[in-house]
Amino acid sequence: MKTTIAQVPAYEGQEVTIGVWLTNKRSSGKIAFLQLRDGTGFMQGVVAKNDVTEEVFQLAKNLNQESSMYITGTIVEDKRSPFGYEMQVKDIELIQEASDYPITPKEHGTEFLMDHRHLWLRSSRQHAVMKVRNEIIRATYEYFNNNGYVKVDAPILTGASAEGTTELFHTKYFDEDAYLSQSGQLYMEAAAMALGKVFSFGPTFRAEKSKTRRHLIEFWMIEPEMAFVDHDESLEIQEQYVSFVVQSVLQNCKLELQTLGRDTTKLETVQAPFPRISYDDAVQLLKEKGFDDIEWGEDFGAPHETAIAESFDKPVFITNYPADIKAFYMKPDPERPDVVLCADLIAPEGYGEVVGGSQRIDDPELMKQRYEEHDLSGPAYQWYLELRQYGSVPHSGFGLGLERTVAWITGVEHVRETIPFPRLLNRLYP
Questions:
Q1: Cβ pair 395, 229 in contact under 8 A
Q2: What is the pLDDT of residues 21-58, one digit of tens each?
Q3: End position of a domain, from candidates 96, 130, 147
Q4: Residue from 409, 314, 318, 306 nearest 355 by CA
Q5: Cα 188 to Cα 180: distance, rounded to the nearest angstrom
Q6: Does pTM surpass 0.70?
């Protein structure tokens, strides 16, 4: 019976064959312990000299790291293993004998590992991070599909910026200028006017020269947009969605979180509703915490967000930022036009903003005014203005950064480990 490591609990006491790679081994006298992986999981194979031919036993003792093989044996319960099962090996069919594998069980520097990212992905830690990433994506589709959203794909090549031109990658589109997308949001607004509730999930690009542990040049965004939904309703959707994703990971990725050494007690509290603090109160809170230099009207940096998050035991919404530091399309608070109906969701434990959202301007005249203030009167934005001219409605949306969310849920320090092949300021390889 050919199967996978992930499926072996269903075959306890039975003989199976699995295609695997060798991650590590040790042997003593008449027994060899093989650490095996097949992409679905990790498992130990025990080769006893008395249970196999001399040829198989010598092969097991001399295998090199990352050699590939078909391995056959009986599945038995092993309570000492986090996985819970191991294989009593009967036979090994070598596929390829690897040699001089560059990533050994010893410690390696970050740059070395990044240069070998195509191989580093095979490690148990990176495997666990990618499995959690996959579960976040799976849960995202489940949540939005179950709640009546339509997935719409936004273009990657655009004729203009969503929020400003200073952080865009420029290219030529035949005889026109084009840019790699910063966000699918504007297109999702158009889609929401056609389909009601929509979401996009795709790559976005920022050309800012940042080296922080929270930034990537290329990253993935989940961007829902909802017609006939106001700011407060949007906040409820955001907290329900984030709670659903976190609880899905806790339920379906127990072994991966254990592999990563994640303290899951801090994730178990992530259930809606989330606390909220206004920008005004956040500034006051920061001053009380010793940030004397922060002034009203300034945006918050990573230290500010971390300090605010430390005051709460769940993710926290910071609401109603000053209009001058937010995007042109955000709707002003009707009772206080100097702030906008927006919120950033700040994750606990120093992971910073994971969601940003707002109610969008739906008044055609106000949007025209914003166009003039931000010098957006060119033809590239005409279609976006027309959304307000033909049946404008209240609508809201938000964007969740996938890699930051993966970093927070897994507890890894740097977002470079949360995407298969990271693009950083000085890294385009592999």
A1: yes
A2: 999 999 988 999 999 999 999 999 999 999 999 999 99
A3: 96
A4: 318
A5: 16
A6: yes
* Helix, strand, coil percent content, the chain, rounded in steps of 5: 35, 30, 35
Cα 110 from Cα 1, distance rounded (Å): 41
Give every CB contact of residue 178 below 8 A, 6+ residues apart in sequence: 157, 158, 159, 170, 171, 172
Strand partners, 355: 345, 400
Q: Are 82 and 178 members of one domain?
A: no
Residue 179 counted as domain residue:
yes
- Does the residue 168 lie in any domain? yes
Q: Which domain holds residue 394?
A: 117-417
Asked if residue 375 has pLDDT above 70, the reply is: yes
Name the pairing type of β-strands 197-205 and 176-180: unpaired
Contact 341, 394 (CB under 8 A): no
pLDDT confidence of residue 364: 97
- Mean pLDDT rounded to a whole number for the chain: 96
Q: Both 65 and 34 in a single domain?
A: yes
Which is it for strands 395-401 and 352-359: parallel, antiparallel or unpaired? antiparallel
Is position 286 within any domain?
yes
- Rounded to whole angstroms, the Cα distance separating 245 from 411 reads 15
- How far the first Cα of the chain sits from its last, in Å, is 37
Q: How far apart are alpha carbons 328 and 234 in whole angstroms?
A: 19
pLDDT tens for each residue of 319-363: 999 999 999 999 999 999 999 999 999 999 999 999 999 999 999
Contact yes or no for 74/38 (Cβ under 8 A): no
For tokens 């009986």, the residue is 74
Q: What is the pLDDT of residue 430?
A: 97
Three-state secondary structure call for residue 293: coil
Structural domain tally of the chain?
2
CA within 13 Å, CB half, 83: 22
In a domain, 109, yes or no: no
Q: Are residues 269 and 173 in the same domain?
A: yes
| C-alpha distances in Å from residue 18, one per residue of 23, 130, 340 | 15, 22, 57
Kindly give, in sequence order, each residue whose CB lies less than 8 Å from that of residue 21, ignoring residues fewer than 6 positions away. 36, 37, 38, 66, 67, 68, 69, 122
For residues 149 and 231, state if they share a domain: yes
Q: How far is CA 14 from CA 49, 91, 160, 338, in A?
A: 20, 14, 60, 69
C-alpha distances out from residue 342 to 90, 180, 311, Å? 62, 25, 21
Residues 43 and 189 placed together within one structural domain of the fold: no
Same structural domain, 149 and 230: yes
Return the pLDDT at 109.
96
